[in-house]
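User: I'll paste a sequence; please echo it back and then give the predicted structure.

Assistant: Echoing your sequence first, then the prediction.
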Amino acid sequence: MSSDMGNLARRRGRPPGQHKIEALRKGGIELPRVDAVERALAILDAFSEDRVRLTLAEIAQRTQLYPSTVLRLAGSLSRFGYLHRDDNGQYRLGPTPLRLGQLYRQTFDLTDYVRPALARLSEATGETAAFYVRDGDKRICLYRHHAPRMIRHHLEEGAQLPLDRGAGGRVLLAYTGATDPDSVAIRERGLAISLGERDLETAAIATAVHGNHGIFLGALGIVGLRSRFAGERIDLLSASLRAEASSLTRLLSGR
């Protein structure tokens, strides 16, 4: 095959960096491919520390893609915040990669911060402590620390629970876009209390945990027998929960 034909094949097919995927394939791992996605990612990979702004022609040269292809993909990437086109026609990375990078850093070592917080919260309250994240129309118990009591609420990590019932679920709804009156009230109060809502014999209190730039990370909660969530003890439990959530937020946000 001539060099011109080789270049044409590269333009129409695999972008630079494909050798990384080929290395995995040689190890016996067959990975699915979506050409349009790989080409879009190749455009993002074209930027470097020494070239933070590129023209359309420079991107096409670096990715070995047709300029018309780059233009179409750049439009989609710009709409989602991955690219930004300056007034002079040059492209640079948009705000979305930064946001994703921050999310990555926060979740990369989240366990190191959350587990000690759950242990302290469980010891202070005598109840099971858990950390929930939203997964579509469900919530997931990502981490938990069981209470040091013989009679306690047992919750397994990885358990799927409803979003519309329970304190943890209501906090997740309130901080992921819900606009109903209950969610507005939870955001104003900073706390959700559930008494026998998901299970008649259990109760729970939950609040939000944030990271860098106020990004919502998940719901920190305590759960136990309903008989122990009554009277003045609710105030004491709520105060312990708020204090631990505030401390965790400060650690995760670097403030």
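The longest strand covers residues 216-225. Confidence is low (pLDDT under 50) at residues 1-28.
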